[in-house]
Amino acid sequence: MKKTRMHILASTILCLSIVSCSDSFDTSFFDKEIEDPEFDISISGLPIGYINYSAKELFEELNEDLTVSTGTNDIISFSYSQTLDGSGNADFVSVDDQNFNGDFDLLASSGLVGSAPYVPGAVPGDEVSKSFKDIKELTKAGGASLDVELTSADFSNGTFTITLATTTQAKTVVEFTIPSLQRKDPNNPGSYNRTFTLNDKSGPDQNSITVDLNNYTFDFTFDDLNPDSNNGVNNIAVKLDATVTFEAGDVVSSDDTLTYTVSLNSPEVESAEGDFKQSAFNVNGQTFDLDFFNDIGDGSLTFENPILTLSATNEYGFPVGINLDGISTNASNNNILIITDDSPTDDNIEPIAGGTGTYAIIDAGLISGATTSDITLNSSNSNLSDLLSEKPTEFNLQVSGTSNPNSPTGNTNFFNVNNTLNVSVDVELPLHVSFDDVTFNPEPIDLDLDDDIQDNAKQLSLRVATKNTIPFNGTILLDFVDDKGDDNESNDDVLFSKSVQAIVAAPVGNDGFSTYTLDANNVLKDANDNVIEAHVPMNGDDFAVTFSESEIALIGDATIVKLSIVFDTDSNGDGTATAVKVKSTDQVRIDLALKGDLKINTNN
Question: Cβ neighbours of residue 357 under 8 Å, at least 6 residues apart?
């Protein structure tokens, strides 16, 4: 007998690679180079080789952007992370422009009557001294009281302007002190004070001075009854010590007054202390894609123990409440996160007092540094599992924040514009899961086969034997398609289809883990150390996939192969999806053999 056309066999093996290997999981279920064949009595035909996959390798190839990690008990987990940005709060504590006015009767009790040139001796000592104290309250633009109670503040920008005016011609010396305005200069501490001298026989007079706010610290605690005490909030205290000295000919009147105006212009708060009450706090929302759900089709899926963790590092000196009602998915139904246990202890989750919804409580930072709070949502305190069973492809974190959640008053807070709040959102999906006909749809495989297959092969068959410790069943569906080259898939012709039940789920124990092991010698054993034979799916002529002569003829017209891989966790074979746990070390070995009915060229 003459030797066969060996390049036909090579082409056949290329055809086999449609099922067994490709560049990535996105184009094939199997993405490993086929190892050299080993003889196995359980699989007849010409041995091609074998493929061995761990469960972790399988899921890593599901999507190149998918993070597959291992957690407790080596369970495979899919992980997603996003960051919520707490910046944009530079004006969280702000003070509007302010104008305060005071009007004092300097000479009402001086003994002067009417208005006339001063006669020496009309006032004992020819001078009058008076002291005045006044308290002015910070307000919002328009005059309404502030929503917060400030006790102190530093300003990075802005000015403080003092204007004094008198209607008397007599020399008026005013020592103007602002107890609320404290100098930052360590070499010159104390309250702001300045001596003003107004006119000397020059008629009515005024004097102004402007200072930079960033050189001072404001103390807003001076009491509204006594500027020397410190029980108040939002107060600016002023003190005036005025002395009027008379000289002959000064035109003076008992109605003469001394007025002042104090103005805050364009103040920008750098830091502040006080009770910020419940004020809106900016938290920039984010959305992240759930890549896992992008790659599965119809069928039910339930994660038994999904975890969503908010890990917040807070440098601000007040707690922040994030409204969890702002967490949702893009699923059509059951797409809003709902807290089912909103009064647990020590988990930083609280219902919103007097309202609807739930806060995740981020603890206040300390003067000595930041604090970190971890808020965990899972199946025991939320509908997270139900939310994910809808297989959403997007997770939306459009949340809002508030200071001092559920604490409307009595708070001791501090703020600095340079501080930050960083919130990382981590979704972990441990593969403790139940599948029911969940379908993965990798990218189609381009197909360009040698014409010798059509000319020389009457029949080709592929046999598969699997030894599996993963608690998943797996069926591969293949559609051989003539792609018309446009974007409309309805124009494509499906020439023929094939399927193979490639993987039979390993049974699981009471703990949800597989009871099968596969040793280094390729021996599959159960929990009692009994040897388990390989699974060899039968189809056609005792082979898993058999290509008839007519199908081989059509293969030449196929330009792509569309694949679907259907998983389920019916490990008991009773039609019910079982919740199983998948370890990274679970594995499946697939041995491949080939049988061909080939033409022999006796002339060559």
Answer: 323, 324, 325, 351
The tokens for 44 are: 């007849």
Other CB atoms within 10 A of residue 91 CB: 11
> What is the residue whose two structure tokens read 């495989």?
445
From the centroid of its chain, how far is CA 127?
A: 70
| Of 464, 545, 436, the residue nearest 497 (C-alpha) | 545
Mapped onto helix, strand or coil, the DSSP state of residue 462 is strand
Nearest to 502 by CA among 20, 17, 15: 20
Tokens of 495: 């020439």
Q: Return phi, psi of residue 489, to 5°.
A: -65, -20
Query: Tell me: the pLDDT tens digits for 241-280?
Result: 999 999 888 888 888 889 999 999 999 999 999 999 999 9
**CA nearest 259: which of 246, 242, 276, 277?**
242
Rounded to a whole number of angstroms, the distance between the first and last alpha carbons of the chain is: 10
Tell me, rounded to whole angstroms, the distance of Cα 554 from its chain centroid.
51
Closest CA to 336 of 399, 263, 273: 399
* Average pLDDT value for residue range 349-359: 88
Q: How far apart are CA 542 and CA 537, in angstroms?
A: 8
